[in-house]
Amino acid sequence: MPGGFAIAVRRGLGGLTVFLALVWLGHGRASAGVNTYADVFPGDRAAGLGGAYVALSEDGSGAYYNPAGLVRIRFADVSLSASAYQYQSLTADQAFFGRDWTRRGGLFVPTSFGAIRRFGDVAVGLSIAVPEAYDLRTSTVYRAVEISGFPFDLDHDFKDAGQTYDVGPTFAWAITPELSVGATVYYVYGTRDRSSFFKIIDSTDPSFVPGVSFATSEETVTGFTGSLGVLWEPDPCWRLGLRIRPPADLHHFRKSQESEFLGLTDPLGLVPTFETPAILNKGFTEGVPGNATLGGAWMPSDELTVSIDVSYFLEEDYPGFVTPVRREPTWNVSAGAEYYVHPRVPLRLGFYTNNSSAPDVQAGVSGQREKTDFYGFTFGANWVSEHTELGLGLRQGFAVGKMLAATVESEAPVSDVHGTETAVFLASRYKF
Prior knowledge:
Elements (H helix, E strand, L loop, with lengths): L2 H24 L17 H5 L13 H4 L11 E20 L2 E21 L2 E26 L2 E25 L4 E23 L9 E25 L2 E8 L5 E7 L21 E7 L5 E8 L5 E10 L2 E3 L6 E3 L2 E13 L2 E10 L16 E14 L3 E17 L9 E18 L1
Antiparallel strand pairs: 1-2, 1-18, 2-3, 3-4, 4-5, 5-6, 6-7, 6-8, 7-10, 8-9, 10-11, 11-14, 12-13, 14-15, 15-16, 16-17, 17-18
């Protein structure tokens, strides 16, 4: 390779480290929150039924699904559920200069807590829900990546983690024995932690000084959200539920430190270095569009319950951190069945979808968020006594989607995304 051309390529590679960190840090997540709405199912019975719980809502997690159902609780009730382990693995085919890019991660998640007390036709309580939790990481060395005929090794570390907590009071009122209404108000607090590190190494040239970039982002999310619920039981075998959630504009504050370029072989001094990283602290608005869920439950006997929920989320545009964020109209469906194989042992099976609200990904258009849809199955089993209940369950999901590949080409191609998610959840409940 001619010396002048080699220097030019090395100059390009040094700048490329900066480009890589910023591009990958800005990609939308497929894991949760930004694009999808049903990332975690608070409560073990609801989780075992695939989230189809709006027409039931008969434990502490009902404050999240449909507060109107809480008047069906006969005793004071304390419920606690958690994902003992939650694991995701997502692979984007040829998304990284022709190489596959895989993110994996697992964590323990307390998903819900509810304390409910009934006073005649009124039920009041306090609930905590964790509707979003994720921790995806990658640490990979890509060998012999080639740009403009120049091979190099690329060390890439990536992290994207966060949780959201909803905390607040709930209220329900039985207007008649067949009809009840309820409301829950949540204070929302969330954290986001993202980082992306790149190091370019010329393994064929010991004198080549690596190009390095490192971008980090720490974010907090605060605001209020809530839900209104109605539950109607026209017949002992049938229930209909409706939950309405108004739009929630949440305040985000992000501390972003962009990449620091540490140097490379450049005897002419043509490539600038940044001794002080660029720092940007900024507040912006992004939230959850208004949505409604209609649920139905069929209970032909004391042993069998079948439920289904259909959710619709409106479209919404938000200003975002740097570029505007658009959420498309989105549908989701959950269905579940519960059967008591023994008077103290109910088994549950569910199906769910968790579709992305991101617009379709188009080749060559920068600033697009990943669009990955999830679907899957749930299974649960409980031991029930007069005053206590213990549960164990499993959620197995699958991911199919698209994202924009990273490349130096003028028109970046679209990459296929696929993967799995697995969660083991535990729960306990005490009635007194």
